[in-house]
Amino acid sequence: MTAEVSVGQYLAIPYQPFLGNPAKNDVILDGCVNLPNLFPLPGTVEERRIIIASWLTDPDHLFWEVWRGSAVVGILGLSRIIAGLDAVGHFAFFDRQLVGRRTLVLKMMRWAFEQLQLRRLSVEIPDHLDPLIRFCRVKLGFRYEGELLAGRHPKVLALEHERINGPARWVAKWGARRERMHCGPDGVWHDLVCLRVLREEFAQIG
Question: Which of 33, 90, 144, 178 is the most exposed place for a label (fewest CB within 10 A)?
């Protein structure tokens, strides 16, 4: 069972669509529809709302609704959960602002590692959303899939002579992706960039 997570002015509680004011569901669905990093399929607004609703209520997923005072402002969640191994993390704030919300996301991640006994946590982000990718890397400790291994390879290390800053990061950035997996609001298909943080890496984050 998921638990409440609170940080400062924010409170994240397990998402239960049939408890509380039902108007919150419209706020959540409308907020998710307008976020470019969620839900890769094209379609009408109504079609996307149906997909989102089924995704949020899937019994194999875990989601929290995030409140600031009397307003619901975002969601946190986990999908593709394999207890003892891995899950895909999701965090979305409807105003698209991440400043001041890092601690809340980290607390959810800590809950996932402890309660689900995960060895790693994954995220998948459309490749054109550089600020979100950078936030995950700099603020949450994520790394591209294969980045750690690439950093040990002599061919990759040799790229330093080509004046490539951070050659392991550069190589992994292009290899750690699922090609043409996300349709943006402009109708253009983008790659999903795959990142992960390992349990022992997360333990070192303050």
Answer: 178
The domain ranges of the chain are 1-118, 122-206
Residue 206: which pLDDT band, with cuts at 50, 70 and 90? low
pTM, entire model: 0.89
At CA 143, angle to CA 34 and CA 28, rounded to 5?
A: 20
Reference 36, options 194, 170, 186, 156; nearest CA is: 186
3-state helix, strand, coil in the chain (%, to 5): 35, 30, 35
- The second-level CATH assignment, the architecture, of 1-118 is 3-Layer(aba) Sandwich (3.40)
User: pLDDT for 51-72, tens place per residue?
Assistant: 999 999 999 999 999 999 999 9
The predicted-structure confidence for 5-49, as pLDDT tens digits, reads as follows 889 899 999 999 998 889 999 999 999 988 877 777 788 889 889
**Angle, helices 130-140/102-115, rounded to nearest 10 degrees:** 60
Q: Show the beta-strand stretches assigned E in 3-85.
A: 5-7, 10-14, 62-68, 71-82
Contact 135, 98 (CB under 8 A): yes
- Closest CA relative to residue 3, chosen from 62, 88, 79, 91: 62
Q: What pLDDT score does 44 carry?
A: 86
